[in-house]
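User: For my dataset I need records formatted as: sequence, then structure tokens, nothing else. Please produce one.
Assistant:
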Amino acid sequence: MTISDGRWLLFFAVGAVLFGSPAWPAADLEAILLSEPNRPITDTQVEEAAALLDDDAPFVRATAEWIISRKVETDNSGQDLVRPKDESPVWFQAWRERPFLYRLACDYARQAMRHRAHHSGNGLAQSARLIMKRAEWAAALVQQRGPARYASEVAPQVTLLRERVSRFESAVQADPGALKAHRKAWIELRLTARPVALAALGMDVEELLFIKRHAAHSHRNITGLQYPWVHEPGGDIFRMSLEEVECTPHLPDHESLRRPGRAVDRHLREP
């Protein structure tokens, strides 16, 4: 197989995940991510990636999910919305139906891949120690600054994480080459530490101030005349209490947000 082969991306990406530090430099996934970030992904490649979304190895799933995400992002990079549509391909439906925790685990796996921690058991063990260190810091922050309602929940979660990290390090020491098992356990460590990190707000926040605006399918972070579909009228500034479910408008709707021919309600543009 050559670099020009239609399956180069999926073959090399999954090869790097399966074999850790690869025998061939060309198969290094991190190098592909850095050197070929904009190479088009074909329909054949994305269909092959969809077949790996339910693979037993979480790092393979993360690679497959990334390939499909790249394809969707590229397809929706213009003014016309390509996906989703009423008749979307099977691979898109399979990708879109992934639950939140699935996508979160994929993000965690790609973070490890980015730092090459997944190439060895020792690399994952070193990452596990950093996870523990950060969780202990977050727990101490909650105890010192609050919110008080989280303090009683954080301590047992940190204890659980410490036990799992200890077992993880012992498993790596006993068999450093069992990368498939170690990668799965590493994902569990990240998920265990997550509630502790989310509890450490650094302050007891009571309200959030935020805006609602048109959710463009592309270029959400760019303002320019060349992207007219991004700038739809409507929206408002809202204040939300974390103790309440519903939002209340903070400022009245502004006439400057209106455009003739568009239906705009008082606070948010109609879909």
